[in-house]
Write a structure and sequence with these properties.
By secondary structure, the protein is mainly alpha-helical. The protein is built from 11 helices and no strands. The protein is 77% helix and 0% strand.
Length: 235
Amino acid sequence: MTFLIGVAATVALFVSLFLSGNTSVGVFGNTHAILLVFGGTAAIFFLSTPLHDLRAMLRSLRGTEFSEDDPSVITKELEAVLAEGVEPALRSRFTLVRHAGRLWAEGISPEMFDPRLRLFDEASGRDALVLPSALRSLAKYPPALGMIGTVFGLVDLFGKLGADGSTIGPSLALAMTATFYGLILANFVFLPLADRLVARQCRQAKLQRVLLRGLSLVNAGEPPHLVEDGSDVAA
């Protein structure tokens, strides 16, 4: 919901800027600037991102497994596992619970269960941070590409100063709109999305710790009371 509000507020901001200044939107439709900034950013993204990290980003984009009623959902999941055994765990919508179910199905010893589950949880946590980290890293490139467009446009402008004055306009347009697109892409897309993903990951990490502790209790044959009170989720 807040994401949609933010998008709407951003659109309203730029529309009001255009209307208040009587500026034509078509002025900003410089094809060369768009290709340089957006195409260059996409090219840099693929050049700088290993395939493994790209897969981790795609998994992260699918969204969080948790919803607002997480404590009660976690409690029901773990109570079913405690009462019925491995089958409910293998069918769970929580990745960590499904992994625990696979460990139980393999006949892992109770002593090895917690270390193996924690290793899997730590690896999942690292994967979840790949996308916000990549977005923060990517945010530094659009302004730089915009500056390249500015320099390119100015060089083209100076080269035409002695020629027909009608050719100066397109050169200036490239010089200015490339910087504009670079700043917009970095500060209104990449950095806000990275901040939002970090906030989401912090919430998911808290709930993941509750789930991890609950599974440890289930493995010991004890009721998952730590999940029922939801104390670890309140922060």
